[in-house]
């Protein structure tokens, strides 16, 4: 992993009055570019083969310029070009997954957030150590031979829903598991899935304060997962199984959600615990993160995963959500990232939010 002092030396070469925000043209780039432009930043879209034509349909979210590479693996070759353009990279799920964790953590361009979080987020075991260390209630782990009811088998890393499957017994586990990949097995929690979109600022001092900085709740969503949300219209699980039809969980979209207000204290407590533990473990995760949870009928919230960057569920709210509107009208997560960069520049504390 590139050392932070190396990144700070690179930043010393920048014209801070001409900062640009760059990201890969995928995932949540529309709101990142739109939010950056609203805060007065130039924008740079990194794309493969050629600029995507659909940006022409959304002029407010079209980047000011594109940098084209032959493949995602070639992104490191444009590092010097990005530095010459005073670029700050905003990572998202596709950016990290397509480039790869090792190449991303070595990428010699100032990046929004703390790269150290990837070590803890991409490894299911370290992720569990982090969350359980924060006092978070997670689904219990199950050994393969002990499977006696529905479990979720999850491979390490973010794969847009391709990285897990459900097994109801040991035989189903053996039929579906890829033993060449690292995996964890968790009990299956019955309830409603809520994806909680937070933002942690180490710079602000007013709001929902924690030991250092402020925690914000920007929005919530639920994911639409290929056939899993509609498949049971065709019959019962047993009938589907007999017909050779199996649910799949590839994410195809997102649905907006609002939680009952009485749950907000618990929601903020969960976010606070996770941030505080991150500060202890690796100097904190900066900016947006998402707790992926299940709300049970007993009004318990169980966290099964964390995404430590902007998630695609925030795309529902380019002009604000029922929560972010109560902070500032029309506030998207993309714009909130740009605001944090702008605030750090004004305070001369870019070192606190970049790595």
From TrEMBL:
GO terms for molecular function: ATP binding; ligase activity, forming carbon-nitrogen bonds; magnesium ion binding. ATP binds at residue 225. GO terms for biological process: 'de novo' IMP biosynthetic process. It is an enzyme of class 6 (ligase). 5-amino-1-(5-phospho-beta-D-ribosyl)imidazole-4-carboxamide binds at residues 27, 94, 254. Transmembrane segments: none annotated. Pathway: Purine metabolism; IMP biosynthesis via de novo pathway; 5-formamido-1-(5-phospho-D-ribosyl)imidazole-4-carboxamide from 5-amino-1-(5-phospho-D-ribosyl)imidazole-4-carboxamide (formate route): step 1/1. It holds the Pfam family DUF1297. Its EC number is 6.3.4.23. It comes from the Archaea. Residues 101-332 form the ATP-grasp domain. InterPro entries: ATP-grasp, ATP_grasp_subdomain_1, IMP_biosynth_PurP, IMP_biosynth_PurP_C, IMP_biosynth_PurP_N, PreATP-grasp_dom_sf. Keywords: ATP-binding, Ligase, Magnesium, Manganese, Metal-binding, Nucleotide-binding, Purine biosynthesis. Its cofactor is Mg(2+); Mn(2+). It catalyses: 5-amino-1-(5-phospho-beta-D-ribosyl)imidazole-4-carboxamide + formate + ATP = 5-formamido-1-(5-phospho-D-ribosyl)imidazole-4-carboxamide + ADP + phosphate. Catalyzes the ATP- and formate-dependent formylation of 5-aminoimidazole-4-carboxamide-1-beta-d-ribofuranosyl 5'-monophosphate (AICAR) to 5-formaminoimidazole-4-carboxamide-1-beta-d-ribofuranosyl 5'-monophosphate (FAICAR) in the absence of folates. Belongs to the phosphohexose mutase family. This is 5-formaminoimidazole-4-carboxamide-1-(beta)-D-ribofuranosyl 5'-monophosphate synthetase. It comes from Methanomethylovorans hollandica (strain DSM 15978 / NBRC 107637 / DMS1). The lineage of its organism: Archaea, Methanobacteriati, Methanobacteriota, Stenosarchaea group, Methanomicrobia. The gene is purP.
């Amino acid at each position: 992993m590139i050392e932070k002092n190396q990144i700070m030396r690179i930043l010393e070469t920048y014209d801070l009055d001409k900062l640009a925000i760059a990201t890969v043209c995928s995932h949540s780039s529309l709101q990142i570019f739109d939010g950056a432009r609203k805060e007065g930043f130039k924008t740079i879209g990194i794309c493969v083969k050629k600029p995507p034509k659909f940006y022409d349909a959304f002029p407010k979210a079209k980047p000011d310029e594109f940098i084209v590479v032959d493949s995602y693996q070639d992104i490191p070759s444009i590092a010097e070009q990005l530095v010459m353009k005073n670029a700050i990279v905003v990572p998202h799920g596709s950016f990290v997954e397509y480039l790869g964790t090792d190449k991303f953590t070595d990428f010699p361009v100032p990046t929004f957030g703390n790269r150290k979080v990837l070590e803890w987020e991409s490894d299911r075991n370290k992720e569990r150590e982090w969350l359980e260390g924060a006092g978070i209630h997670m689904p219990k782990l199950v050994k393969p031979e002990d499977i006696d009811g529905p479990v979720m088998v999850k491979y390490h890393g973010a794969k847009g829903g391709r990285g897990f499957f459900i097994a109801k017994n040991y035989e189903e586990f053996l039929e579906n598991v890829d033993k060449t990949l690292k995996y964890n097995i968790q009990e299956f929690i019955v309830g409603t899935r809520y994806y909680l979109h937070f933002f942690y600022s180490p710079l602000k001092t007013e709001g929902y304060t924690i030991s250092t900085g402020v925690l914000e709740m920007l929005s919530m969503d639920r994911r639409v997962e290929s056939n899993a949300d509609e498949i049971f219209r065709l019959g019962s699980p047993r009938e589907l199984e007999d017909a050779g039809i199996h649910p799949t969980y590839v994410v195809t979209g997102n649905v907006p959600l609002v939680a009952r207000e009485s749950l907000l204290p618990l929601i903020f407590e969960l976010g606070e615990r996770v941030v505080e533990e991150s500060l202890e473990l690796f100097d904190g995760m900066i900016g947006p993160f998402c707790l992926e949870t299940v709300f049970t009928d007993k009004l318990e919230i169980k966290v099964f995963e964390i995404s430590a960057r902007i998630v695609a569920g925030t795309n529902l709210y380019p002009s604000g959500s029922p929560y972010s509107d109560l902070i500032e009208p029309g506030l998207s997560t993309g714009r909130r990232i740009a605001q944090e960069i702008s605030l750090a520049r004004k305070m001369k504390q870019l070192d606190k939010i970049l790595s």
